[in-house]
Amino acid sequence: DVKVTQSSRYLVKRTGEKVFLECVQDMDHENMFWYRQDPGLGLRLIYFSYDVKMKEKGDIPEGYSVSREKKERFSLILESASTNQTSMYLCASSFRQGASSPLHFGNGTRLTVT
Amino acid sequence: AQKITQTQPGMFVQEKEAVTLDCTYDTSDPSYGLFWYKQPSSGEMIFLIYQGSYDQQNATEGRYSLNFQKARKSANLVISASQLGDSAMYFCAMREMDTGNQFYFGTGTSLTVIP
């Protein structure tokens, strides 16, 4: 079974802090994604990566950056956390080729910025 | 335009009854995949079922089936014999071959199973 592991289930940070959310997958997937989920807004794509050191902006990249130094690891960075970044963050991965490969998700990180 | 539309924010179903969750999609790519995910209150997203655009048969996985109507661009999820554990958010998603790295999600339907 594919395993996507997010480093923290719950996180509480202060405004202005630099926050790192880590995600590791064990299925040799090329693609990795970071989503943000808020009630009534569904899943919104922040960034995705289709290869090591490659990254593409999603729909809401402002205030975030990412790092992919190794194929299995994709990090989301909040440069200076703000209260409007309080949300559920979901990491996911998939194979690159073909429309049939599903996304596999981690358990999510509930981030609260105070 | 929205790629995936789920028009039912909330649904209720009696235990042991069947329920249909609606999903319509918009694409000009002839090759695409449609997915349904379940998200219980614990937060994890669970992959349920997949339908390919060229598949002739509707996909089935246990109590889940996908009612695929290509001409109408709809991909409704049918859950048969609902159980209390089916109470969750359900998301429809699409992946296009041309933009294969991106997945498009609907806003979800909250299903509550009543005992």
Question: What keyword list fits this structure?
Answer:
heterodimer; A: 114 residues; 7-stranded mixed β-sheet; 4-stranded antiparallel β-sheet; B: 115 residues; mainly beta; 12 strands; globular
Secondary structure elements and pairings:
The complex is a heterodimer of chains A (114) and B (115).
Chain A: E1 4-6, E2 10-13, E3 19-25, E4 31-38, E5 42-49, E6 56-57, E7 64-70, E8 73-78, E9 87-94, E10 104-105, E11 109-113
Parallel strand pairs in A: 2-11
Antiparallel strand pairs in A: 1-3, 3-8, 4-5, 4-9, 5-6, 7-8, 9-10, 9-11
Chain B: E1 4-5, E2 10-14, E3 19-21, E4 24-25, E5 32-39, E6 46-52, E7 60-61, E8 64-69, E9 74-79, E10 88-96, E11 103-105, E12 109-114
Q: Could you explain the architecture of this structure?
A:
The complex is a heterodimer of chains A (114) and B (115). Chain A has 114 residues and is mostly beta strands. Helix content of chain A is 0%, strand content 53%. Chain A has no helices and eleven strands. In chain A, strands 2, 4, 5, 6, 9, 10 and 11 form a seven-stranded mixed β-sheet that branches. In chain A, strands 1-3-8-7 form a four-stranded antiparallel β-sheet, with no helix packed on it. The termini of chain A are far apart. The relative contact order of chain A is 0.33. The mean pLDDT of chain A is 93. The radius of gyration of chain B is 14 Å and the shape is globular. The model of chain B has no long low-confidence stretch (mean pLDDT 94). Chain B is an all-beta fold. The interface between A and B is medium-sized, with 28 and 26 residues.
Brief summary of the model shown:
The complex is a heterodimer of chains A (114) and B (115). By secondary structure, chain A is mainly beta. Helix content of chain A is 0%, strand content 53%.
Q: What would you call the shape of chain B?
A: globular
Distance between the termini of chain B: 38 Å
Structural class per helix/strand content of chain B?
Answer: mainly beta
Alpha carbon gyration radius of chain B? 14 Å
Strand content bin of chain B:
over 45%
